[in-house]
């Protein structure tokens, strides 16, 4: 039998396509002072916080304390107050607890009214950032409030420098650089606030909500880079 013809050699495999590195945005830790401003707060300027039963007892004992421990140290006064509280009958302690509960309800009503007067959702937890923004807007509406001239800024330069310093690729920023970044940031925030306020008015809302900002980010081409799904 005739020998089998040799099989033709397989063509060389095509070279693999080079792997294109995918650019990944660097993740920078959020500064602690910014995180703190997002935490819920229960301290609103102008509203008296509810005292605890202990604080109510100390207030009632103030005059007696001046006589019993006239020149005593803080530790001596604290020891005297603690001893008097321990000697207090249970029914008297309950009276202080009831008073404290009444003060808490009073404070909750005042907070609810504070939110309602400013168009805020009563169920929304207040943060230091939110309270600060509301108070800043109220100050801006006060008679005689001076508008910010075009060449000036209100954000502290040290704050901007600290935020810029989070980027490990930035060694230092000149004063002119900080001033330019600050002004650009404030103009951007003003633009975002203006567009978001227009969205709120479109929905017949007097108070700006997060939903208005979110909708503005979805509909304004210039703000697409702020969307979470932007790539």
From TrEMBL:
List UniProt keywords, sorted A-Z: DNA-binding, Nucleus
The residues forming the signal peptide are none
Q: Nucleus: is it a keyword of this entry?
A: yes
DNA-binding region as annotated in the record? 47-115
SMART domains on file: HMG
Fetch the InterPro entries from UniProt: CBFA_NFYB_domain, Histone-fold, HMG_box_dom, HMG_box_dom_sf
This chain belongs to the protein called HMG box domain-containing protein
Span of domain HMG box: 47-115
User: Single GO cellular component annotation?
Assistant: nucleus
Q: Which Pfam families match?
A: CBFD_NFYB_HMF, HMG_box
PROSITE patterns per the UniProt record, alphabetical: HMG_BOX_2
Q: Which organism is it from?
A: Heterosigma akashiwo (Chromophytic alga)
One term of GO molecular function? protein heterodimerization activity
- The answer on whether this UniProt entry bears the keyword Transferase reads no
Domain of life of the organism encoding this protein = Eukaryota
């Amino acid at each position: 039998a005739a020998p089998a013809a040799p099989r033709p050699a397989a063509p060389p495999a095509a070279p693999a396509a080079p792997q294109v590195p995918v650019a990944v945005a660097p993740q920078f830790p959020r500064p602690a002072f910014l995180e703190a401003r997002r935490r819920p707060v229960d301290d609103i300027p102008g509203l008296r916080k509810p005292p605890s039963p202990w604080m109510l007892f100390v207030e009632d004992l103030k005059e007696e304390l001046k006589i019993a421990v006239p020149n005593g140290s803080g530790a001596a006064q604290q020891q005297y107050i603690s001893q008097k509280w321990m000697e207090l009958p249970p029914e008297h302690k309950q009276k202080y607890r009831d008073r404290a509960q009444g003060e808490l309800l009073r404070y909750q009503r005042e907070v609810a009214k504070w939110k309602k007067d400013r168009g805020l959702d009563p169920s929304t937890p207040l943060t230091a950032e939110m309270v600060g923004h509301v108070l800043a807007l109220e100050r801006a509406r006060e008679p005689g409030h001076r508008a910010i001239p075009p060449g000036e800024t209100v954000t502290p330069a040290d704050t901007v420098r600290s935020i810029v310093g989070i980027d490990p690729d930035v060694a230092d920023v000149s004063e002119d650089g900080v001033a330019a970044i600050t002004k650009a940031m404030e103009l951007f925030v003003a633009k975002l606030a203006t567009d978001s306020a227009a969205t709120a008015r479109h929905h017949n809302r007097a108070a700006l909500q997060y939903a208005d900002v979110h909708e503005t980010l979805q509909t304004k081409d210039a703000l697409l880079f702020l969307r979470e799904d932007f790539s």
